[in-house]
Amino acid sequence: MTTTRGRVVTYVALIVGALATLFPYYWLAVMASNTTADIYATPPRLTFGGHLFANIGQVFAKIDFFGSLLNTLIVAVVTTLLVLFFDSLAAFTFAKYDFPGSSLLFGILLATFVVPTQLAAIPQFDLMAHFGWVGDLKALIIPAAANAFGIFWMRQYARGAIPDELLEAARMDGAGFFRTYLSVGLPVLRPALAFLGIFTFVNAWNDYLWPLVVLIDSNHVTLQVALSQLNGLYVKDYSVVMAGTLVAIVPLIIVFLFGARHFIRNIAAGALKG
Predict the structure, then answer these.
(1) Is the CB of residue 46 less than 8 Å from the CB of residue 234?
(2) 71, 223 in Cβ contact below 8 A?
(3) % of the chain surpassing 90 pLDDT
(4) pTM to 2 decimals?
(5) I need a surface site. Which of 95, 142, 147, 229 has the fewest CB within 10 A?
(6) Contacts 24+ apart (CB under 8 A), 249-258
(7) What residue ranges define each of the domains in the chain, with the CATH number in brackets?
């Protein structure tokens, strides 16, 4: 009886948690399908309206949605690929190889967690201006090609997931560092790479401050900056803003569903092998 009651409580808690998580997306869709007057109505309207496609049409008319979407997609995909490569390579080195100064270097890396991102905006902008990258997508991609969190996360995972015996066997077979990394390290690190890929893609997709600072051409912006242009100076049509936001999160949902399935599949495969 106690076990059954515990299961019921667990399921109820999971259902409540899932509903609480999904409600903001439902409310976003409701606001995107109604008018701004409906949003301000008292009591608020909790059902879908018939203005979704009209609001989306206004989004496409007011901003270069597909151009900014392409810019954001390029930045997010390239940044994610670079982070997965450089962070996993650095983490594999820190986790499984001893070299002079490794502890000091990793400590300095961890210390960068303390530095706020906004504090580095001015010197980073000056550096991008020196390279002539201001207004170019390279200014968004290159500085984000590696990050301390990814290296820390991958290192912690690699230390426990990659047996030293596999590395020793690879060395005995004559494999060099990169061959060992590709043939031994990456296959074991797939679950961690899936999580880091989702995390990096979402952060790159949602980034607003740095693209706003460094992309000075209003016709060459990312999606988040373009969506902010929907807000007028005196009149704010929140239904149109919500419609743009709703369309903008669709790629994130697709990436999450694909990445989460890959992540869970690799975790399950690792558990079965263990």
Answers:
(1) no
(2) yes
(3) 28
(4) 0.85
(5) 229
(6) 249/25, 249/28, 251/69, 251/73, 251/205, 252/201, 252/202, 252/205, 252/206, 255/198, 255/201, 255/202, 256/198, 256/202
(7) 63-229 (1.10.3720.10)
